[in-house]
Amino acid sequence: MSSISCLCGECKLTLSENRPTLSLYCACKDCIQALRWCESRGGKAPQKLPQGFYIRSDIISVEGEKFMKAFQLRDSALSTRVYCTKCFSIIGINRPNYLNNVFWFFPNNCHANLDLSVNPCAAIYLSSYEGGIAEIPDHIPVFHNFDYPQELERFRSINGVKNTFREPTCSPNGITFENLIENLGEIENVNLKIGAIPTGYEPQF
């Protein structure tokens, strides 16, 4: 069965889909900060340039819910992340603009029994990236930020992006990732400082 589980094996989501709809390289400071926060509590170190995947938000069964906790980085956060309280793997991430259609995960920081052959179709928030652009394959479109509407439109014109950030086309067989977050109760605010993130910075994906 298709599943995403934490690295210690206590938490597991069984999914209705096996293949993600989209993969991106993401250098946004919020993703890195959240992964490093989990690392500081015993989780796995993040990749220098994390590769994430979007999978349909349709969860057939949940195991280890008592070890799952939802958290946000700060009061102004839009992203809500679910992690395992034993190994601090991040199991999945939700944002309002995912429209309850997909959720986001990093297979380097969890176990994903899925078809991950989906190639990244873009590298985003490269203005925050501490590495060299030469590390990114030449055929991958690069977006340093989304400060300009034309950059956002260029990103949204990518087929995988158009097919991912949209309203669901059918009802889920199980529960959505938003339902899971609701079931976990109060969201933990870890009150991390924005730090070097520019004023007004807000990741969109």
Q: Keyphrases for this structure?
A:
205 residues; 25% strand; 4 helices; five-stranded mixed sheet; four-stranded antiparallel sheet; alpha+beta; globular
Structural features, described:
- There is one protein chain.
- The chain is an alpha+beta fold and 205 residues long.
- It has one domain (3-189).
- Helix content is 16%, strand content 25%.
- It has 4 helices and 13 strands.
- The strands form 3 sheets. The protein has a 5-stranded mixed sheet with strand order 9-4-3-11-12. Strands 5-2-1-10 form a 4-stranded antiparallel sheet, with no helix packed on it.
- It is globular.
Instruction: Report the order of strands and helices.
Output: EEEHEEEEEEEEEHHHE
Q: What's the domain count?
A: 1
Number of helices: 4
Beta fraction: 15-25%
Low-confidence stretches are 196-201
Rounded mean pLDDT is: 92
Task: Give a brief rundown of this model.
With 205 residues, this protein is of the alpha+beta class. The chain contains 4 helices and 13 strands.
Write the layout of secondary structure elements.
Blueprint: E1 3-5, E2 12-15, E3 22-26, H1 29-39, E4 51-56, E5 59-63, E6 68-72, E7 80-84, E8 90-94, E9 102-105, E10 111-113, E11 123-124, E12 142-143, H2 149-156, H3 159-164, H4 177-183, E13 188-189
